[in-house]
């Protein structure tokens, strides 16, 4: 029987994180690397990924950066093949990248909607399919999709007040679809010993957020605060590791209780 610490270990594993230098991506990458994985951070902004990877290596962890354009099917396959060529396998896929263009429903153009869908919907499908094929070939894997509370519940527009911030129309559509697609993938890949799960984070505290928005958000969430950089780490390691070996097809809100009422 494995000890509880061993269950959460990712030693010897290879983890691929799309959007690896993003707000949540860099914290996800740090968590996986700290748990023992070699983490490949991938995004169009390769320089930002390399900065994050270099910081992890400076801490004695294993990390590297590779280019990825989720709007380009060839880029996805090139990334997959490069990771397998260098590391022999892909044990964990974190679908974290998201395109953000457009505003609320009256301030989003057709072109913006189609652009976000190309990345957030089609790109998600292609990444899951192509990396999933590698996991089928090796007989194991864990896919973790990073969705949002706004894939679970409708937005509370009152929290934005007079800040000029809003909740973009594409976000609810794409993240709700991601949660449903998670269940599909979980059922499809289960015979191949591949688990697929989803995390739905709430708002992450970030520099420059208007004080009015922060106050309104924190008054609305039961735990009384925005998420911090460590709040995503435990849940993502749990779903990536053997600690969740009998968990597949679930969506876990990481939201301070936002969706609890």
TrEMBL record:
* Signal peptide boundaries: none
Q: Which Pfam families match?
A: adh_short_C2
Question: A GO molecular-function term, please?
Answer: oxidoreductase activity, acting on the CH-OH group of donors, NAD or NADP as acceptor
Q: Which Gene3D superfamilies match?
A: NAD(P)-binding Rossmann-like Domain (3.40.50.720)
Q: Which SUPFAM superfamilies match?
A: NAD(P)-binding Rossmann-fold domains
The residues forming a coiled coil are none
Family statement drawn from the similarity comment of this UniProt entry: Belongs to the short-chain dehydrogenases/reductases (SDR) family.
* Name this polypeptide is given: Unannotated protein
Originating species: freshwater metagenome
């Amino acid at each position: 029987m494995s000890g509880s610490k061993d269950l959460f270990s990712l030693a010897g594993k290879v983890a691929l994180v799309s959007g690896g230098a993003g707000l949540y991506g860099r914290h996800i990458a740090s968590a996986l690397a700290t748990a023992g994985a070699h983490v490949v951070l991938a995004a169009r902004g390769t320089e930002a990924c390399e900065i994050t990877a270099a910081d992890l290596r400076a801490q004695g962890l294993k990390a590297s950066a590779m280019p990825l354009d989720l709007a380009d099917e060839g880029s996805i396959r090139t990334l997959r093949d490069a990771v397998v060529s260098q590391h022999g396998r892909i044990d964990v896929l974190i679908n974290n990248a998201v395109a953000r263009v457009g505003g609320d429903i009256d301030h989003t153009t057709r072109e913006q909607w189609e652009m976000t869908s190309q990345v957030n919907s089609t790109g998600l499908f292609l990444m899951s399919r192509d990396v999933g094929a590698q996991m089928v070939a090796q007989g194991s894997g864990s896919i973790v999709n990073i969705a949002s509370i706004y894939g679970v519940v409708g937005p509370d527009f009152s929290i934005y007040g007079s800040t000029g911030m809003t909740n973009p129309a594409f976000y609810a559509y794409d993240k709700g679809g991601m949660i449903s697609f998670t269940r599909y993938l979980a059922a499809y890949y289960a015979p191949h010993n591949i688990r697929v799960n989803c995390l739905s984070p709430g708002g992450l505290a970030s520099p420059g957020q208007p004080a009015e928005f922060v106050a309104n958000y924190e008054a609305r969430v039961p735990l009384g605060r925005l998420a911090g950089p460590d709040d995503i780490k435990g849940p993502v390691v749990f779903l990536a590791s053997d600690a969740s070996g009998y968990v597949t097809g679930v969506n876990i809100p990481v939201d301070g209780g936002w969706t609890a009422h």
